Write the structure tokens for this entry.
Amino acid sequence: MEWNVILNQPVSRSLRILGSLDGVEPAEWNALSGGNPTVAYEFLDSLHRTGCAAARTGWSPQYPTLWEGDRLAGAAPLYVKSHSYGEYVFDWGWAEAYERHGIAYYPKLLCAVPFTPATGPRLLAASPAARQELARALLELAGDADVSSLHVLFPTDEDAAALRSAGFLERAGIQFHWRNAGYRDFDDFLGALSHDKRKKIRQERRRVRDAGVELTRVTGREATAAQWDFFTSCYRRTYRAHRSTPLVRHCRLAGTATTPVTFSNR
């Protein structure tokens, strides 16, 4: 569907809701991605085309896009979700609370990259004005749609500021990231730790070495078909061990005011 919205004069933009990336020029989309591979046209389109993130798996793309004539000026990876799998931000408590009160929690709207708990652009915009308009458009879509809520996961600081300004509620979580502080080598890294931690790490590494385990780093382009098959098998076993459903089919293929709206910033 498509309708027109007017931004700050004299700029006029149209808003279109897309069920796929068909008809969008990859170069135009990628120009808005800031070079982030998780929101690259090729990655998102592959998730849709392979059925990993599609209506039948509970991920129905409904991408709001801003256009200045024929030029793409903004977009957001928005999905209608029928479950909460593949998000890595757990809202099962909310779903249970809705159920206890006889209210349907699904469908809900989710602005995120499927299966990717990493911070990145969520309001892909050519300008701050377009970013703010996308945030407002998300709110309007949530208000007009028959959904329980709208969630934006892992936005950048710029996107988070636009979402706050538009009236979103913020819920914060914690992730632990290791950063290289300029260590010369692994021993230099160990030297920054306490004696007990150094001892434990060395013991763990010795056990791995004694077990005959060898680690090799292989990029996606270098991996053989057999390696992709093995990786996919490990991925599926991990999901099933945690009683979840592995939605990626094959890793080689994936080369209103009353509506609560939130975003998670980690």
Summary: Confidence is low (pLDDT under 50) at residues 1-11, 253-266. The longest helix spans residues 128-144. The CA atoms of residues 144 and 256 lie 6 Å apart. The first strand starts at residue 2 and ends at 6.
